[in-house]
Write a structure and sequence with these properties.
- The protein has 302 residues and is α/β, with parallel strands linked by helices.
- It folds into two domains: 111 residues, Transcription Regulator spoIIAA; 177 residues, Vaccinia Virus protein VP39 (Rossmann fold).
- Helices cover 26% and strands 25% of the residues.
- The chain is globular and about 60 Å long.
- The termini are far apart.
Length: 302
């Protein structure tokens, strides 16, 4: 128990020395590199800490963890603990109040955050390597962003000079946040579409807005009643050829710790026999993984 706590204390000590304001993961217990603390993550959003518990904490260890977090109070305006294992999800503000507005800083880009009872903040930090990949490839090109959620990929694409971006997601509230994210970054929304569609029922409309030069596919691993990666990802892959003309760059994402890279590669090659697999993107250094990463980002060409 002492060794578990010392690792967390060392990570939190770094918070007191970091002042750049960029969003980063202070402690990634979920990666399996810290035995005994695989139920804990700590994110730093510059102004405050976001702590997520994926199961009820060890009652003997939890007071010491709270004390270690308390050491960050002088340098952060707030700290909030989300008890994600509870239903409904419960949040505990250790100090400070819920900010009326909060942003995650990623380089020069900003993304709106919503901390509270909902499970997700609206920003997926671990996908930054994918956004960096996109920014290197989309200048002057047309981008399709499937399962766009709050449109972080779209923000990255437009900021890097994409001429057109089509965002598709059935969660219309998330797309509204996506529009806000573009405004937050002072980006023009001319030739940016936000389509609140069920992708499987809207291929004709999506195809009519193409062809596309770059495609990003980033679905949930499982969403009851709408998507299950094990049976539905193949349906997406089969339709990709009809969305492009000539050479296209693809970023295919799968965030499912229970599905391996090998499984994903076999699926992609089975459904797209002519595809050129370039390789998996490296994950963030602040998301260390003892085994394969939960988030798999595969670069392909078609």
């Amino acid at each position: 128990m002492a060794s578990e706590l010392s690792r967390l204390e060392a990570a939190l000590a770094a918070v007191r020395d970091v002042s750049h304001g960029e969003a980063w993961r202070v402690f990634h217990g979920r990666g399996g590199c810290y035995p005994g603390l695989d139920w804990l993550t700590v994110d730093d959003f510059g102004s405050g800490l976001w702590v997520v518990l994926f199961r009820e904490p060890n009652p003997e260890l939890w007071p010491a963890i709270l004390a270690a977090l308390e050491e960050c109070r002088p340098v952060r305006e707030f700290a909030c603990v989300q008890h994600r294992y509870e239903r409904p999800t419960h949040c505990q503000w250790l100090w400070g109040d819920a900010p009326s507005s909060l942003e995650a800083l990623e380089g020069e880009l900003r993304f709106s955050l919503k901390l509270g009872e909902r499970q997700n903040t609206g920003y997926f930090m671990d996908a930054r390597p994918g956004r960096d990949w996109l920014r290197e490839r989309c200048q002057g090109r047309s981008v399709l962003n499937l399962f766009a959620y709050t449109c972080a990929f779209s923000v990255a694409a437009r900021a890097a000079g994409a001429t057109r971006v089509v965002n598709v997601d059935m969660a219309k509230a998330a797309l509204r946040t996506g529009r806000d994210n573009h405004r937050l970054n002072g980006l023009s929304m001319q030739d940016i579409d936000f389509l609140g569609y069920d992708i499987f029922r809207s291929w004709k409309r999506i195809r009519s807005l193409g062809p596309y030069d770059v495609l990003v596919v980033d679905p949930p691993s499982f969403q009851k009643g709408s998507f299950d990666a094990r049976k539905d990802y193949a349906r997406i892959l089969r339709r990709i050829p009809e969305l492009v003309e000539g050479r296209a760059e693809l970023l295919l994402c799968l965030n499912a710790p229970y599905l391996s890279r090998e499984y994903f590669l076999e699926l992609v090659r089975a459904e797209l026999p002519s595809i050129e697999v370039v390789g998996f993107l490296d994950g963030r250094a602040d998301f260390p993984e003892a085994g394969e990463p939960a988030l798999k980002m595969l670069h392909c060409r078609l």
